[in-house]
Amino acid sequence: MQNQLNNSSSVSNEIDVAILKHFYAMRGYRPAWIQNDKLSPELDIAIAFIATAEQEGLDSKDYQLEQLLHLRKQSSEYSLLLELELRTTQSILMLARDLRRGRLIASEVDPDWHIRQPKFDPAAYLQKAITSGNLKSSLADLPPKTQEYQLMKQALAKLRKLVKRGVNWTMIPETPLIRPNMNHAIIPLLRSRIAQIFAMHGNSSYDIVSSENGSEKYDSELVNAIKIFQEQHGLNADGVIGPNTRAALNKTPEQKIRQLRINMERLRWMPRELGDRYLLVNIAGFRLTAIEYGKHVLNMRIIVGRDYRSTPSFNSRISHLILNPYWNVPNSIAQQDLLPKQQNNSNFFTSQKIRVYVNNAGHYEEIDSDLINWHAVGKNFPYVLRQEPGEKNALGTIKFMFPNRFSIYLHDTPSKQLFQKDIRMFSSGCIRLEKPLQLAGFILNEPNAATDIGDKIESGKTITVNLSKHLPIYLIYLTAWVDETNNIYFASDIYGRDKRILKYARW
């Protein structure tokens, strides 16, 4: 067997020959799928498992399924037994690796992903599965077992059946805004689309709309269905049909299949154990979820970074809260965002309680902003800006701190109206929160914590609240996700990260 591993052309470049050698070395170079020159019962278990790759959002061609089935039929020919042995092992090792840690290298296909992929030794895992006599159950344990992943898997199967039936997905044309009770010629087409979406997602709320109703009035029945659709696709559920709603309605089953496959891959990149209590920040979905023992106990809207200051994916642990915080303005924001406002309005810094400092040999000295010729300040911004706590402070009344190299944190905001927008990319990378006090209550996990925090904020003092136990937080980019009622949601690819992954995966 050792010589065949060195010389066999059956082994492709898809998986390192060293991994195959490692696997067979643990077995004393004995075959795994052949016993006494005959096929073992485990071979069919292995091939049957390889056939499930499509269900996991992967491609069975990557695991040589057709070649294995062909070789299996010709297994009476002794000369082909070794090829079947090696190909089967190669495919199982590849699939095991891809299901446990992801098919793609996260950092290569998404440079903004900074969560370490799980480490996994497929050779050791497979050897243990075979010797334990639990090959079938061991292989079944490889994919993520979370409810979110399993529901995406179910949705993927349903969409593929829909595509196989050949659904005609007519594009809804561009129109001016359509508001409730208006009449428009495309309303019957919208009813047909909602019926198709009911077939796609099975949400019973969509089933109230009759596709046979030929009326051109945007009636309450259809409005309610559109609101549900908007909510499911991360849009403001106002019933108004604008460009974002139309784009979501025009997303074909094939596009959603690719979207599900990409996000199932992202879930495979994640650690298998996230903690008993943790925060999940979905950047693409503009949503923060607090999770406790597997249950969603708090959800809120968030605001993320603009496309040119995009929020990256990473994980950390919340260590402390700061109440009534100062805002030490990053130099890039001071120069690019605030300086032009001061140049247009000489009273801007004063009105916003922004104080100006100079760095004098490591000591910061405040200077009067009225004494500075702001129109003469160029690209090399020489000052340090700090905004005082208060109702105008850009960080609001509370911020949540966790160590990271991106200088990102969660915080309150005085601009509450922005949470009503569909696409909420307004920050400089940090995460603005819709419900900061409720989040503080969850993080502190103590009776009356939110009330106590509220009282401390009312004092007007800047207070640091340290956590005795740091709370895990994961900032990830998911354009498909599952809520606490097991409904699947879809979002726009706001930063183009899905598109980048598709280019590598060729899905």
Low-confidence blocks of residues: none
Terminal Cα separation, in Å? 36 Å
Strand order of the largest sheet: 3-4-5-14-12-11-6-15
Main sheet properties: 8 strands, mixed, barrel
Strand content: 15-25%
**Class computed from helices, strands and strand pairing:** alpha+beta
Helical content stands at 25-40%
* Tally of DSSP helical segments: 18
User: Rg to the nearest angstrom?
Assistant: 28 Å
Mean pLDDT: 91
Structure summary, number of beta strands: 17
The best one-word shape is: globular
Would you kindly provide a written description of the structure presented here, covering whatever features stand out?
The chain has 507 residues and is an alpha+beta fold. The protein is 38% helix and 17% strand. The chain contains 18 helices and 17 strands. It has helices at residues 2-7, 17-26, 41-50, 65-73, 81-101, 106-109, 122-132, 135-140, 147-164, 187-201, 220-232, 243-249, 253-269, 331-344, 348-351, 436-444, 449-458, 497-505, and strands at 34-35, 38-39, 277-282, 287-292, 295-305, 314-323, 327-328, 354-360, 363-367, 384-387, 398-401, 410-411, 425-427, 431-433, 463-476, 480-482, 488-490. It has an 8-stranded mixed barrel with strand order 3-4-5-14-12-11-6-15. Helix 16 crosses helix 17. 35% of the residues are buried. The model has no long low-confidence stretch (mean pLDDT 91).
